[in-house]
UniProtKB/TrEMBL annotation:
This is NAD(P)H-binding protein. Residues 128-249 form the NmrA-like domain. Coiled coil: none annotated. Residues 11-106 form the NAD(P)-binding domain. It comes from the Bacteria.
Amino acid sequence: MNPPGTTLVTGATGTTGSRTAARLIAAGHRVKAASRHATSVPGAEPVRFDWYDPACFGGALAGADRVYLVPPVGEPDPAPVMLPFLRQARAAGVRRAVLLSASAIPEGGPGVGAVHRVLPGLFDGWAVLRPSWFMQNFTGTHTHARSIREHGEILTAAGTGRVGFVDADDIAAVAVHALTDERAPGTDLVLTGPEALSHDEIAAVVTEVTGRPVVHRPLTYEQMRDRLAAQVPLEFATMLAGMDRAIAEGAEDRTTGTVRQVTGRPPHSFRAVAARELSRHR
């Protein structure tokens, strides 16, 4: 790995940002932990950062030579929001950028796919992480996790489609390598867990681990869209429901060896993550 530099981690209190910041700090790297309220992160310099407030960009970027990019949550078209910051980052001396995208969104695709397309032209070193759906969706604060705890059910429009769910800790491990290895990947990395599981299989594992019955209740695409639209903008809800429909059609039924190739160890299984994290909620 390179000698310790300073990494600006956006979304530093979020699912992957917090884990990436912690791993960087543990490895001896300086971290600026960026969040809207400059929340304190152990071992990091807290900085205020809001994608929608360009006035905070300069302070957040000061002294940073690399950046971990978590797109603004719930923004259906993040490119116009993110690109002014990315151009300012390049001008400020940032030479490496690692962007969090998703396995369902290719370069030039909708949403963050437009940012993916321009990233190589902005930075000398770059990578785009395209993880599958997070295992932590069922163990953390996501809607699915809350529904499991409160109602014992998982609601999706994914039918019997399988997904190579991935541990956020594995995403963070790959992110740290992409940020600090001597050479940046210079490509996109599709990240999955070791096996593809249906939501019925996820429910069965959660039931076994917690001892509480959990079931998967399938919804139609329209039901899922409307349910999500009560929580996020309609355009974003429509996109998310469309991703569930794509899962039902087999779009995410795959696994990759990327986590092992980058980190040198296999990805964590959902059973292992559920045992590690859901035991806290028994």
